[in-house]
Amino acid sequence: MKGDIRIDGNSSTAFIVSSETDILTAENTSWSIRPYARKEALGEKDFARKWSVKPVTSRLDIARCTRNHSVPAILFSAGGYSGNFFHAFTDIIIPLYSTARTFNREVQFLITDRKPWWIAKFKTLFEALSRYEIIDIDDRHNVHCFHSLTIGLKGRNNKELSIDSSTSPYSMKDFRKFLRSWYSLKKITAAKIRDGDTRKPRLLIIPRKRSRSFTNVGEIAQLAESLSYQVIVAEPGPDVSGFAKIINSCDVVMGVHGAGLTNIVFPSRKCNLDSSSSFWNVRVGVKSFLRRSCEEHEHKVLGL
């Protein structure tokens, strides 16, 4: 949307005094939106604040600007399922990259449903996409004014951890290159070990400690070492950058299917992934289809 746009956190409303957008087809048309990429899956308890977009015919009908901005803005929610590492990437980080990358960091992020710990966790990526400090748009004390505003992020693809080429000029290959650059991930391609090679491939085991986990990590590590692997056992945590460097340094990643394996966006190309699933109550045919679909996506889209 373009024009005289005023964003009032007190009423969760974006007012458009004059706009060039062709979305508005009639005077006084307004609509509501939850600026979250997976909004269609949100239940009543899965909180993501609703925002209204409302055109007005006079500046006298709305509050005056308290802060004026010269760059475009993107308003999005950090609510929903963002506390889950998988959903943080599929529902926010990847759609945000797809939406914001074209601005070359000259864009202001406005976050609704702000979580300070969550923003701190992905601070590196936010700074990579915008040179401006994030604004908590739920703050009820300011009316922020812009000439261009995007509410919500570009829609998700049907496949998780992917970018819809019909709505974005970028691909997952571009996204992974972006991650390597900003997290300083040095390893580009996994090692190829041939007969007679004395090098040991690095194997990362992600054990998990909650609902699904390996119960014999020690035995797995011991067996892998007997097969000439250099074994590392590590769990992802709040330090995304640190774990990204660990997983990027490895040639093989082994883990139980779960949110932690979202870290497959960080390994080097041709890295081998062994994901153990717990769908033991699913018929073999369906399980084989799910595994084939995942493996095809990992190979074609993520380069693993």
From TrEMBL:
InterPro entries documented for this protein: Glyco_transf_61_cat (IPR049625), Glycosyltransferase_61 (IPR007657)
Pfam families xref list: Glyco_transf_61 (PF04577)
GO molecular function list: pentosyltransferase activity
Membrane topology, as annotated: Single-pass type II membrane protein
Protein keywords: Glycoprotein, Glycosyltransferase, Transferase
Keyword Ribonucleoprotein: no
Domain of life: Eukaryota
Keyword Glycoprotein listed: yes
Domain Glycosyltransferase 61 catalytic residue range list: 85-271
Record GO cellular component, one term: Golgi membrane
Location in the cell: Golgi apparatus membrane
PANTHER family xref list: GLYCOSYLTRANSFERASE (PTHR20961), GLYCOSYLTRANSFERASE-RELATED (PTHR20961:SF5)
Designated name of the protein: Glycosyltransferase 61 catalytic domain-containing protein
Annotated organism of origin: Salix udensis
